[in-house]
Write a structure and sequence with these properties.
40% of the residues lie in helices and 28% in strands. The protein has 162 residues and is of the alpha+beta class. It folds into two domains: 3-19 and 81-161, PH-domain like (Roll); 25-78. A hairpin with a 2-residue loop joins strand 1 and strand 2. Helix 1 runs antiparallel to helix 2 (50-79). It is elongated and about 75 Å long.
Length: 162
């Protein structure tokens, strides 16, 4: 699960949400290796000619572009996360963005309304928290099934705190 619920005490809990990392370090090495192989395959026809030296920089630039785009995206995904802390007195959500300042939201858990829109929202199983005059989305990077499970777990945690 890309989220982890930690019960710190009977009256406190914390939920850490992280996006799913679909390409790990081992898969990254394989992908770059296969891409390099496929990019070099057409160069076999021009081995031993001057044309090889003309095409080689472009193949290298294409491979570097793929490598750069994947590492940049992967690094951004590693920095994206949400932390939700729950206690009887307050509920605090912090979204750590890949670039920029963290976004925060806070409300009293008694007045918080947890909503899961099956259909009709921007995405399937749209999960929001409402309180203190604001409505915030929770787990935007989760799949619809994961948001439904998170809704159930968070509903139980809120019921214990009230």
């Amino acid at each position: 699960m890309p989220y982890q619920m930690v019960q710190e005490s009977p009256t406190q809990a914390r939920i850490d949400l992280t996006p799913n990392r679909s390409l790990g370090p081992h898969g990254f090495v394989w992908f770059i290796g296969l891409t390099a192989g496929f990019l070099l395959l057409p160069l076999i026809a021009v081995l031993g000619t001057v044309v090889l030296w003309g095409l080689l920089p472009f193949m290298g630039a294409a491979l570097w572009g793929v490598w750069y785009a994947l590492t940049r995206h992967s690094a951004d995904q590693a920095r994206l996360r949400e932390e939700l802390t729950l206690s009887r007195e307050r509920m605090h959500l912090t979204r750590h963005q890949p670039r920029g300042h963290p976004l925060t939201w806070e409300a009293h858990p008694y007045w918080v309304r947890l909503t899961l829109l099956d259909k009709g929202g921007p995405v399937e199983n749209y999960l929001t928290l409402s309180g203190s005059g604001r409505e915030v989305e929770l787990g935007a990077f989760l799949s619809p099934e994961e948001r439904a499970h998170l809704h159930d777990d968070l509903s139980r945690a809120l019921a214990r705190l009230r």
